[in-house]
Amino acid sequence: MLHIEVGVLKAANAAKAKHFCELIDYGSNKPDYVYVVMTLLYKDLHKLRSEMPNRRFNLSTSLRLAMQAVKAIEELHKIGYLSRDIKPGNFAPGQRCNKQSKIIFLYDFGLARKYVDKVSLRLILFSEFDDIWL
C-alpha cells in the first residue's frame, strides 16, 4: 500500500505543506522489499505521552500539540485526502530542513483515501454504506 503513502507525500510536498515529511526517495526490489525514505522524526505522541509523569502532557503542551495536529489535518484535506486513521501514534515532532523550531508531523497514510473527484473537482457524496457512517 505504499503507493498511497507516496501519493499523499508527493501532493503534500508539491503544496509545500508544513506538517508533512519530505519525500526523499521511494521504490521497490520486487518481490521482497518496498521502501519510502522521508524526513527523520522523533518518537510519536503516543510514546512520548506514555513516558511523561502521570502518562499525560500538561495543559499548555496539549493545547500546542492539538493546534498543530488540527493544522496538519487541515493541510491533508486541502490536498484532497482523508486520513481515516487519526490517533496520537500518527503524529510526531520533527524539524524542517534549515529550521530550528520543532513542529508536529502527520504520517502513516496507509488508510488514507482521496476525496476529491479528479474529473469534476466536486466532493464525492457518501452514503450510509460507506464506513464513515459507522
TrEMBL record:
InterPro entries found in the cross-reference section: CK1_Ser-Thr_kinase (IPR050235), Kinase-like_dom_sf (IPR011009), Prot_kinase_dom (IPR000719)
Domain of life: Eukaryota
Domain Protein kinase stretches: 1-134
GO molecular function, a single term: ATP binding
Residues making up the signal peptide according to the UniProt record: none
PROSITE patterns on file: PROTEIN_KINASE_DOM
Name of the protein in question: Protein kinase domain-containing protein
The organism of origin for this protein: Strongylus vulgaris (Blood worm)
